[in-house]
Amino acid sequence: MRNGVSVMIFPEGTRSEDGNIKSFKKGGFVMAVDSGAPIVPVILRGTRSIMSKGNWRIKPGNVSLSIEKPINTTGYTRDTKDDLIKNVRSVICEVFGKGTKFDSSA
User: Fold this and answer.
1) With a threshold of 0.90, does the pTM exceed it?
2) How many whole angstroms from its chain centre is CA 67?
3) Which of 104, 106, 97 is nearest to 43 (CA)?
4) Sequence-ordered list of residues with C-beta below 8 angstroms from that of 73, at least 6 positions apart, any chain
5) Which helix (H) or strand (E) holds 97?
6) Residue 15 vs residues 4, 5, 8, 12, 53: alpha-carbon distances, Å
7) Beta bridge partners of 80
8) Tens digits of residue pLDDT in 81-105
């Protein structure tokens, strides 16, 4: 991350069984704080219906992707990473909650 390499993490660590956003694991946030790299919240909607937890079969379906503004991590430390996690999680939950209407003509 320090040399310009992007890292993508899935902070829940697994797929949700019920479609609700679960608590976030801390590892990716520690990496971001240690490196000073910003976190870019990325929200995927619709993936549960195409590949549910416990099933490796992928079905056709619509998925939406939202990429939000980067969140600066330079003001955070390992001791305050939980505040960073809350900040990132609140952005993701807010955007996820808005939902998406799919254009069936696309």
Assistant:
1) no
2) 10
3) 97
4) 32, 33, 36, 37, 38, 39, 84
5) helix 81-98
6) 28, 25, 15, 7, 6
7) none
8) 999 999 999 999 999 888 765 554 4
SS (H, E, C) 75-91: CCCHHHHHHHHHHHHHH
Residue 4: DSSP 8-state: S
Joined tokens for residue 79: 């001791």
Tallying the residues shown for the chain, one arrives at 106
Residue in 98, 79, 99, 76 with CA at minimum distance from that of residue 88: 76
**Tokens 């390992």 — which residue?**
78
Q: Which three-class secondary structure state does DSSP give residue 94?
A: helix
Per-residue CA distances from 83 to 27, 33, 92, 100 (Å)? 14, 11, 14, 28
* SS3 letters across 43-79: EEECHHHHCCCCCCCCCCCCCEEEECCCECCCCCCHH
